[in-house]
Structures are given as structure tokens and as C-alpha cells.
Amino acid sequence: MKIAGIGFRETAGIDSLRSALTSAGGPDGVMALATAVEKAEAVALVALAAELHLPIRAITPGALAAVETETRSERVAARFGTGSLAEAAALAAAGPAARLLGPRAVSADGMATAAIAEGDGP
């Protein structure tokens, strides 16, 4: 199963999230979107999930912090306890044996990131 992890700034819109997801490889085969619990009800994410007919998986702070990521943002590490929200959310939601299909990708406007992981599920 493929899961797309999404990280984004509070002011990011659906176009930013869509751009990041497209840059990460696109939604084909993706079974769900994943992000931090505190971002799971953001308007832009809910709109993207509805557009793609995908559920949103809200990942707890402990689960995010337990994931080693390929990339690292000090700002994200300070806030979420992991180097990349997109990578950590994707890996946590895709299951213990999950692997990233590539490092996080950034939207054209720099407001969102996405990473796709493949695994057997939680």
C-alpha cells in the first residue's frame, strides 16, 4: 500500500498541497494521505483528500518522533520531533516495514512538502 505524507505551512492552500504531491510522484496508487494530528483537519488537506477520494490518517506526535527521515528541517524537528513531517507521516502510516519511494518533494511555492511510502500497513 502507498501512503502520501503531507507537510505544509498553516497558510498553504490546496494548490500547494497538490503541487507537492505531484512533485513526489503523484496520487496514482496512493491509498491515503497522512500528516500530523494537529494538521489533519486543515481546510486545504481536507479539500485535497475529498478531491482525490482518499482518507486522511492523523499521525500522533510519538509516532512521528519515532521515525528516522532521509531529509531534515530544523524547524520541523523542533515542532514535530522528526526531520521531515511528510516523510515521517508517510512511513508511520504505511507500517513498520515501510520504505520511502523517494525523499520529500517541495511544492512550487515552497509552502508544502510530500513524500510517498510503500508498506504493508499499520
Question: In a nutshell, what does this entry contain?
Answer:
Helices cover 35% and strands 24% of the residues. It has helices spanning 14-24, 43-52, 61-65, 74-80, 85-94; strands spanning 2-8, 30-36, 56-59, 99-100, 105-106, 112-118. It is globular, with a radius of gyration of 12 Å.
Question: Which characteristics define this entry?
Answer:
122 residues, 6-stranded mixed sheet, Nucleotidyltransferase, domain 5, Cobalt-precorrin 5A hydrolase, hydrolase activity, CobE/GbiG_C, hydrolase, alpha/beta, globular, CobE/GbiG_C_sf
Distance between the termini: 10 Å
Low-confidence segments: none
Number of helices: 5
Relevant CATH superfamily: CobE/GbiG C-terminal domain
Overall pLDDT level: 94
**Assembly classification:** single chain
Structural class: alpha/beta
CATH topology (level 3) name: Nucleotidyltransferase, domain 5
Query: What is the CATH architecture assignment?
Result: 2-Layer Sandwich
> Helix content range of the residues, please?
25-40%
% residues in beta strands = 15-25%
Largest beta-sheet details: 6 strands, mixed
Q: Shape, please?
A: globular
Number of strands: 6
Q: Give the domain tally.
A: 1
Rg is 12 Å
CATH class type: Alpha Beta
- What's the order of the H and E elements? EHEHEHHHEEE
